[in-house]
Specification:
single chain; 15 helices; transmembrane helix; two-stranded antiparallel ribbon; membrane; transmembrane; 383 residues; mainly alpha; Reverse transcriptase domain-containing protein; flat
Amino acid sequence: MEGAGIGEVHRYRSRLEMCQILLLLLLVVVVVEIAVVAVVVDVVVVVVVVVVVVVVVVVVVIVVVVRSKTISVFFRLIPFRLLIKVSVEILQRSTRKAVEQLFTTNVGTPQGDSLSPVLFIVYLENALRNARSNEIPQQVLPNEIIYADDIDFVGTDPPNINDIETSLKNFRLKVNVDKTEHTELRKDKEDWKLTKKIGSLLGSKEDIDHRKHLSNVALNKLSNKWNRPDKVKRKTRIKLYNSLVKSILLYNCGTWALTTTDEKRLDSFHRRQLRRILGINYPTKITNQSLYKICSETPLSLQILELRWRLFGHILRRDNSIPANLAMLYYFNENSNRGIGRPTTTLPITLNNDLKRLQNKDVQLTTKEDLHKLQKIASQRPS
């Protein structure tokens, strides 16, 4: 058994040596090709490369013929870094003198010009004003929600929405059909919850499941870091988790309408991921308090609570004409005459439940008056 093991070692070394030789020969071929390309650039550089190639070839021949036990010494003497540096220098010199064929444009502004997006916005606004003239004005909700170059047209009259494409055609603007979605918000249909806006699904539960899946994918991609606690320090693993995994999980979490059950499930999911990065598996046990202390973490539900109110406070301090404030005003107008029965958990209900935990009856969020009161409180926050 011992003799067989030694034989395996020798065979392994032999294969390793052959791989090194093949790698070196491949590098020689690459250097020669680069030298051929650089002939028109610099003759001196080509001569230097040829000399280096000759030296390398001689060394390779000696290694192959002699096959001595000091083969690793030969490879240590070969200036790999010098060869790579010379190759990069040749490529840089050859590209400096390269001139592409010029072409002229006589339509529109130059591609990549800083003036192009400004002109497009001005032209698009003119087209939208023409489209607005045919729309039925809404009492509260805005007809358009614009984020960067994405536009959502909101309305209660479907035919009017469909006429927008025709209005834009009059200005030679074409709607990209592949990137256009028609979403209908109805209580008896839940297809709209799977509609994605700026990376998030409209339905809270659907978006939470989507975020869990994406964070698990990111977690599994870093398995080589979690499975090597002897190589990667715990502090480094926690930083990697917070930056590359938890950030994906908490993306846009301030818009989630959470129930108590949702919060417990998120906390449990978060703890499983923390145990994973620490390498704590069954039957090893650790209390939740100890786990949070080791990772310098808090329950995920509390982190989401903080992010939710940070977003809400930012909106409250903005002008009343922004779409978010108009949407909240529309919500309380419509919610004032809702029917009987347990209401669906929405973001305002989640925010009101947060206020109930403060046990302060003077502050709540159930009516328009409560919303205006919270806006005044938010505006008094010291800058």
